[in-house]
Amino acid sequence: MKIAVLSSHTLSLLWFRMDMMRDFTEKGHTVIALGSEPESDWKNEFAILNIEYRQLYVERNGMNPLKDLRTILALHKFMKEERPDRVFAYQAKTVVYGSIAARLNGISEVFPLIAGLGSILRGNGFKKNIIKIIMKFEYWVACKCSKKVFFQNHDDKQEFVQYGLIKDDKTTVINGSGVNLTKFKPAPMPQQPTFLFIGRLIKDKGIMEYLEACKEIKSKYPEVRCLLVGPFDSNPSALKIEELTPYIARGVIEYFGEQSDVRPFISKCSTYVLPSYHEGTPKTVLEAMAMGRSIITSDAPGCRETVIEGVNGYLVKVKDIHGLTARMEKLVINHDISENMGVESVRIAREKYDVKIVNKMIMQTMQL
């Protein structure tokens, strides 16, 4: 079969969907990946993996209706010319516009993934409420155009059902994007207590809470390391460089920017920290678990599924800097707990989040 995989972010195809696309091709299917970056930059990298890459004009965070219309027309043209047998789409714009474009061309085998509801659907305020109404309608249309819709946690699925955007029997919940256990293997724990945050530097990821907690921890335990990996972003809640600079200048944070391979940084930490406000299922947490790290994350949709409290890590309330600091301090004082929790993280990753198990469920649902 010919399978189209749609994303509004090319790097996301490599980071989150490459194992899935590779499993598609190993089954003998043809895969065409659509992303936002130029074909001249990425075509060869995908071709090595027997995947065809096409550029799609799409603005991930823009609100310009004319630019969105251009995206819809581009997707409509693609569907008309290529006639894919299956369409897998994720990220808001490609989910909505890809599903509509497919249905307009008589393609019913459409399988979107709702990988977290994002800051808009969970936000408040007059402007956000207007956008929320528009996005709910768009998601309702996309769900109508789809055969099955994947969710990465039950909270998000239930919200869609309660909003009336989809019927329960049209949903499938999978355990995130899974983690490649061949690539992410247990690594020796550093002797020095070290915390790590990986992700886009947006406030909805809990970056400010992490920075403030690190400042408190470093003031009491100067020997502790606090690492930060990830790019600045165009998201409305993005951290500005001038907001991060003081933490770097004072030695609170060691900032390493965006990295194509996060394994060396996970190896450097004893505890992985992600105090996000909401997620689908955070892939970086799964990668840290597979490498044998204790986890501190928020008791929020998508995050809470990854931690068994007190077993492989701790859950803290959203935006609770004091609670986050207390849990980090506990693991500084009792460093051996991190090692025991890391062992449990590996067990859970293998039992629940193996990418092969996740991809098998996706392929069964898509009848591949």
TrEMBL record:
Residues 184-342 form the Glycosyl transferase family domain. Residues 6-152 form the Glycosyltransferase subfamily 4-like N-terminal domain. It comes from the Bacteria. InterPro entries: Glyco_trans_1 (IPR001296), Glyco_trans_4-like_N (IPR028098), Glycosyltransferase_grp1 (IPR050194). The lineage of its organism: Bacteria, Bacillati, Bacillota, Bacilli, Bacillales. This is Glycosyltransferase family 4 protein.
